[in-house]
Amino acid sequence: MVRVFLGTYSPRLDDKGRLTLPAKFRDELRGGCMVTKGQDHCLYVFTRDAFTEMATKVASAPLTSESARAFQRNLFSGTDEQNPDGQGRIAITPELRRYAGLSKECVVIGAFTRVEIWDAQSWQQYQEQHEDEYAKAQEEVLPGLI
């Protein structure tokens, strides 16, 4: 069964660097999750199974590729395994908070097979830059799918 994450939420980081996951996501992530550096300076949160599947593909890239090695190093060195506490909180490491530029105000979005954690201001800027492109999307973006 594919786990699906959808929606937009606005939790806050507490003084200990913990973030409360949206209630809708907690059951899927209760058994543990992997928090890692994502593209666009956000954080990705995967279930363990989804992370293992993705990581296996990434690890299969040829070691002779400099860009593949750099990607692997950033991905694997920047991943932290977390188990949400009874209140659905996960601790975001200082390095991951730095990478994503997280302040107290955060945005958590469901991105189908993963959760993304954004600094609220960064998410707003991203939306301002890309929302109009989405509204005007042509078939060339996803040929034959929409």
Could you explain the architecture of this structure?
There is one protein chain. By secondary structure, the chain is an alpha+beta fold. The protein contains 5 helices and 8 strands; from the N terminus they run ββαββααββαββα. The protein has a 6-stranded antiparallel beta sheet, with helices on both faces. A hairpin with a 4-residue loop joins β7 and β8.
- Provide mean pLDDT, rounded: 93
**Number of helical runs?**
5
Please state roughly what percent of the residues sit in beta strands, choosing from under 5%, 5-15%, 15-25%, 25-35%, 35-45% or over 45%: 15-25%
What gap, in angstroms, lies between the N and C termini?
24 Å
**Helical coverage, percent range:** 25-40%
Order of helices and strands: EEHEEHHEEHEEH
| Lateral strand order in the biggest sheet | 1-7-8-4-3-5
Name the shape in a single word. globular
Structural class: alpha+beta
Number of strands: 8
Our Rg estimate from Cα atoms comes to 16 Å
Main beta-sheet strand count, sense and barrel state? 6 strands, antiparallel
Low-confidence sequence ranges: none
